[in-house]
Amino acid sequence: GIQVEQSPPDLILQEGANSTLRCNFSDSVNNLQWFHQNPWGQLINLFYIPSGTKQNGRLSATTVATERYSLLYISSSQTTDSGVYFCAVSGYGSGNTGKLIFGQGTTLQVKP
Amino acid sequence: EAQVTQNPRYLITVTGKKLTVTCSQNMNHEYMSWYRQDPGLGLRQIYYSMNVEVTDKGDVPEGYKVSRKEKRNFPLILESPSPNQTSLYFCASSLNPRGTDTQYFGPGTRLTVL
Prior knowledge:
The complex is a heterodimer. Chain A is an all-beta fold. Helices cover 0% and strands 58% of the residues of chain A. Chain A has strands at 4-7, 10-14, 19-25, 29-37, 43-48, 52-56, 59-64, 69-74, 83-91, 101-102, 106-111. In chain B, strands 2, 4, 5, 6, 9, 10 and 11 form a seven-stranded mixed β-sheet that branches. Chain B has a four-stranded antiparallel β-sheet with strand order 1-3-8-7, with no helix packed on it. Chains A and B meet through β4, β5 and β9 of A and β4, β5, β9 and β10 of B.
């Protein structure tokens, strides 16, 4: 099945700093999403981005499907950005069931 | 407001006592699924459904049942819960029946089985 690797595993930033999170995947995908899991455990959908570039406020994401990676940019980070960021993909194999394969996540801590 | 809801949000129970976690979406989505999240194992799919009356096993279906009698509801049933089912559970839905567009997740249910 598809393998998903995220880097870095942990990131500590000062408030106001910028960061880039990376997601590598091992096969073609028909779905790629970025999520933020907040300290209460909720999974917040950030982007649906199997290809191309999107922006939403201080966050933006780019997926280069031909090279099998996606990047999540966080600019001017705030303490409320803290939590775990997951990349999740689904592929064309295994009967195309829509199952999302999650990476192990990047744990972000933003210090005031 | 478009959303996926789960109930209960927190539950502590004992081994063997049947329980149901409800999941409902108000977006007329075709696809629904259940995941569990465990430390060190990440999120894993339990069951999914592409349409009413159509359900199938995910990666970790043992000990769980589901039903999809109506489009909006997809309950997760634990007929005889065991401590290894202690986990954080998420329900998800998407418009496309194969889940190939945005999947929206519910707020999660923290289950502890003693």
